[in-house]
Specification:
Layout (H helix, E strand, L loop, with lengths): L1 H13 L15 H20 L3 E4 L2 E4 L1 E4 L4 E4 L2 E3 L4 H22 L2 H5 L2 H17 L2 H9 L4 H26 L5 H4 L10 H21 L1 H7 L2 H4 L10 E4 L1 H4 L19 H4 L20 H13 L6 E4 L1 H4 L12 H22 L4 E7 L6 E2 L4 E12 L5 E8 L5 E3 L3 E4 L3 E12 L7 E10 L6 E9 L2
Antiparallel strand pairs: 1-2, 3-4, 4-5, 6-7, 8-10, 9-10, 10-14, 11-13, 11-15, 12-14, 15-16
Helix pairs in contact: 2-5, 3-16, 5-7, 5-9, 7-9
Length: 463
């Protein structure tokens, strides 16, 4: 009975090929330079932006801040409210469409150069190399028995990893709680419950994902690697091995009998996900181009043309001509069109965005009241929301019935970024020829800019 059980166990093990920890060989070249340029760019933006300040009418605040408690998103001079959620939807749609567009053009280019997992794994691997040595030294250290030296190097590495992950978490939370207010609360842990949760969670998340999981995220956890194929077409460029030129492989490269590949295996050694690009396109490939840099160096040394591994489409690998222009690539044309459409819609929504929001509610507790001077009155609650960062004054008028008007004051000032409820009384002569419930309109306009106005419908009740 034990034999079938063993067979089932072996079959299960084949579904997950554990290769062990990958120690990729460092390489240099164009793509490696581009990857590190992207690392520097993204991290300067991430770690630096939260320290920028913005002066708004004499009040200095953090330039980029998602203030959940006060339901505001500050983006330099722009202040967004929950009512502007449509703009956020456009941003998310644009981000997704841009990802699809890039994928249709050049595969998982985002994964290889701009994905946070790739960026932080590169940083953590760089720290590891500085502490433990090159890929061979790290491999030898991992395989050696525990010793004082090994324990010390591992402790230093994990300590630096933890400090970097902690600062990353502090920076992340600093976009929700002003970072200049957050830092003084950390030494004696006077942070709020949500701040404390995200500081611990994001620190642990960064440490585990970039330091411990690393390539396993790209190999087994990332959903994008599983469905990326539906965005490819025969014209999509991916990192590929030119088998027609490289095969058959031979380390001695006998003239006329072998291809250019000398089977050195360096393309495998430098791969951060541990695949052999010569086996064809694989979902684990992140299109980082490091195997191109490594192979080009080998080709240069042996006097062969570079480009044995390069960005190629399926058509190019088959020896067919690559179509030019968007007309020859309908998938790319579709994504480009969607990018243009949603960009224009987002820009129009932002330009048409009003800094004044109004809500008019008629007092339903009393239908109407008649006064001694021969007028009929209705009571209303008007809520004025000033989305501007400056206090503004507004004029309120009412239209729709003969002789109708507001009783008392009709100009009001609303503080910057606040809501002011107003209790207004609207009256009209009692001898009016109409009766019942009649439609009226409130017009609220800004005194500093008459073009900023809102028209709200309501009703007036007559006997």
């Amino acid at each position: 009975m034990s034999k079938p059980v063993n067979k089932v166990r072996e079959a299960k093990l084949e579904l997950y090929r554990k290769k062990g920890k990958i120690h990729a060989k460092a390489t240099t070249g164009t793509f490696n330079t581009l990857r590190w340029a992207m690392v520097w760019f993204t991290q300067i933006v991430f770690y630096g932006t939260c320290w920028l300040t913005w002066d708004a009418n004499g009040f200095t605040r953090q330039a980029v801040l998602l203030d959940i408690a006060h339901e505001k998103f500050y983006l330099f001079g722009l202040v967004l409210w929950p009512q502007d959620a449509l703009l956020m939807a456009f941003v998310l749609i644009l981000a997704a469409t841009a990802l699809f567009f890039v994928t249709a053009l050049a595969g998982r280019l985002f994964c290889g150069f701009a994905c946070p997992q790739t960026v932080y794994t590169s940083i953590f691997t760089w720290i590891e190399a500085k502490v433990e040595g090159d890929h061979l030294a790290r491999l030898k250290l991992d395989q050696s028995p525990m010793s004082a030296r090994k324990f010390g190097l591992k402790a230093i590495k994990h300590g630096v990893w933890f400090l970097f992950a902690a600062w990353t978490a502090i920076t992340f939370v600093g976009y929700f709680t002003p970072i200049r207010e957050l830092l003084p609360t950390l030494p004696d842990w006077r942070v709020g419950p949500w701040e404390g949760f995200w500081l611990i969670f994001y620190c642990a998340f960064t440490y585990v994902q970039a330091g411990l999981a690393r390539e396993a995220v790209c190999q087994h956890m990332c959903p994008y690697s599983r469905f990326q194929g539906v965005m490819f077409d025969p014209t999509t460029k991916n990192v590929a091995y030119d088998g027609q030129r490289g095969e058959p492989r031979n380390a001695r490269r006998q003239a006329g009998n072998t291809g250019d590949c000398i089977d050195c295996g360096i393309c495998v050694q430098v791969c951060p996900t541990g695949i052999d690009i010569r086996d064809g396109l694989q979902y684990q490939c992140i299109n980082c181009g490091l195997c191109i840099d490594a192979c080009d160096q080998v080709m240069t040394k042996i006097g062969a043309p570079t480009g044995l591994i390069r960005f190629m489409s399926e058509k190019e690998l088959a020896g067919e001509a690559q179509p030019t222009g968007l007309l020859g690539r309908p998938r790319v044309a579709l994504y480009a069109s969607l990018l243009l459409v949603f960009s224009l819609l987002g820009a129009w929504t932002l330009a048409d965005r009003s800094l004044l929001l109004v809500d008019v509610l008629r007092d339903r507790g009393a239908l109407h009241r008649e006064t001694a001077d021969g007028t009929i009155e209705n009571a209303y609650t008007v809520k004025l929301m000033n989305l501007d960062e400056t206090p503004r004054s507004f004029n309120i008028e009412v239209y729709g019935l003969p002789g109708i008007g507001i009783v008392g004051e009709h100009e009001f000032t609303v503080d910057a970024g606040s809501i002011r409820p107003l209790f207004l009384t609207v009256a009209m002569p009692a001898d009016t020829p109409v009766s019942g419930i009649q439609p009226i309109r409130f017009r609220i306009s800004a005194l500093h800019d008459p073009a900023t106005s809102v028209m709200e419908r309501s009703s007036f009740v007559l006997p």
